[in-house]
Fold this protein.
Amino acid sequence: MEALFYWHWFHSLKGIGQKEKEFLLSLCPEVREWFENNLEWGPEEVAGGRVYSEEQQKRWSEIQMILNDRDQKETARKTYEQIIKQGIRMTARGENDFPERLKQVYLSPFVLYYIGELPKDNIPSIGIVGARNCSIYGEEIAKQFGKSLSEAGIQIISGMARGIDGCAQRSAIRERGKSFAVFGSGVDVCYPSEHKDLYVQLCEHGGVISEELPGTKPLSHHFPRRNRIIAGLSDALFVVEAKEKSGSLITVSYALEQGKEIYAVPGRVHDRLADGTNRLIQEGAYLVREPEDILHNFSKGNFEILLKSKKNPKLLLETKEKIVYACLSLHPKHVEQISEETGMELSELASVLFGMEMKNEIRQTMKNYYMIQS
């Protein structure tokens, strides 16, 4: 059998936790040896000569039974053959194509299943995460940064979730950039289902990645583990909107453990979607206003590509115009409502609205009421 099969079997073993598997690998890193049961260690040898407690001896006997379980071996053979037939690709620790970034992660995945490609080790990458139920403001920020960062040649890593994740990844692909989604389900399970079109695009212009076995449903306890891979594949993490307790902040905690830089967009003080990002900034995350704030730091890195982005002093204004435009419709809206929905001060908003009027993008139907140009 191929080396990947043995890793697939080891990874899919039920009844042995990851820390216990890590311990087995510390004794013998050759997974095939565990499969073929060529190792005859008893509790004393495993413990380095120390006497095991009765409970530990019992557990070691259980582990040996699990390693020898013929049913699990046969199941692993069948699922491995099915994975190959489906065209799903695999990599594992020790393989040349296993992402270098993930090798440094605590309790790194044993196996990655993927469709498409894996992120390139020698090209910078950034994780973009945020609220699923994001605001129009957050949506536009995610789109703008996804566009600008991918234009600069940076790989976009996210989770294909509703809201910020999906917006950033769609924008990156639209610019013919590379984006990669890490799943909390099998790579053959599109979640959320309404992102089927994005799923197909990611498979063609990047990749979808998971450590979960193909066919696995998107269960809630898979997502925190998924988040450590998003952080691990990213050189830095960018948070657009996040509540005080959210999955995005779990990803941040993993990124901090891994020594990654954190970037965050500030928000209004009383906006719940800004609670998490404002606190991150308060605790030392980089305050980000425009893509150049991130690109400047990336340009200092020892990456083997030249970032293509050039300073654009109008970038922030263009971003604000898009935020305002997204807030408007064919029904007139009062300037105070626009200010509340976009988070802009009235004085700043007046300047943006005036510029958009001059470009015939919007019009004022009556004093202080604006709508898009039909």
User: Anything to note?
Assistant: The first strand starts at residue 89 and ends at 92. Residues 70-86 form the longest helix (17 residues).
